[in-house]
Amino acid sequence: MELNVHNLGCLRGGRRILADVSLQLSAGQGIALQGPNGVGKSTLIRALCGLIPHSGRAQVGEFKLGSDGWLDQIAYAGHQDAIKSALSVSENLRFWAALFNGDAAAALDRFDLSQIADRPAGLCSAGQKRRLGLARLVLTKRPLWLLDEPTVSLDTTHTALFAEVLAQHLAQGGLAIVATHIDLGLPLRQHLLSAPKTVEGLDIADPFLAGDFG
Ligand SMILES: Nc1ncnc2c1ncn2[C@@H]1O[C@H](COP(=O)(O)OP(=O)(O)OP(=O)(O)O)[C@@H](O)[C@H]1O
Fold this sequence. Notes:
This protein has helices spanning 41-48, 68-71, 89-100, 104-110, 126-140, 156-171; strands at 3-12, 15-25, 30-34, 55-60, 63-64, 74-77, 144-148, 175-179, 189-192. By secondary structure, it is an alpha/beta fold. Helix 3 (89-100) packs across helix 4. It comes from Pontivivens marinum. InterPro entries: AAA+_ATPase, ABC_transporter-like_ATP-bd, ABC_transporter-like_CS, ABC_transptr_haem_export_CcmA, P-loop_NTPase. One of its GO terms (molecular function) is ATP binding.
């Protein structure tokens, strides 16, 4: 499976954040999306999740961004861990495993969560919550992982563990775009985002994109 992103652009609040972003990934390849704060890494990832209006196009396998099938190809991990605080760690994973027909026990083990399986997720530390959120990735079995600073709050050991999980996903033919400020120690291709020239001005060429649902 391949990912092709062609001339993707985005406005947010009437300002052009992204212009003409093009990327290509073959099965087993990942991109480390880099660039200074505010350059648009999260914006690109959210646009690829279909959460922000965009121009240009993207396709993974036969599925086009915006089509029904696209969403079934992606697994997104954003800044929010999106866990249910009142459920235990294990219950959170069992909920997601039921949705994706995944193996909750294996995900618990893979993300080193077994010892806190019965703890209410709301009582977990920031790094534990992050691992719980990331554990969903392996349950989804989806090919394209869109990850926005996935290692925030992780200690060194668990950053390395996450890098192993990502390496395994790629070794199995998966794809990944990872916005990150750190080196995960993986052979990811670097893609440095830079601000488009029009970033300070209104882009009246695309007024229909000026709204922001993200
Ligand atoms: N909802 C919004 N409405 C309008 N502008 C926004 C919105 N969200 C973000 N922006 C602007 O879009 C730009 C890109 O933000 P984005 O979060 O994509 O940057 P980033 O590269 O991920 O930054 P960081 O490294 O700090 O996480 C920023 O200038 C930000 O102020």
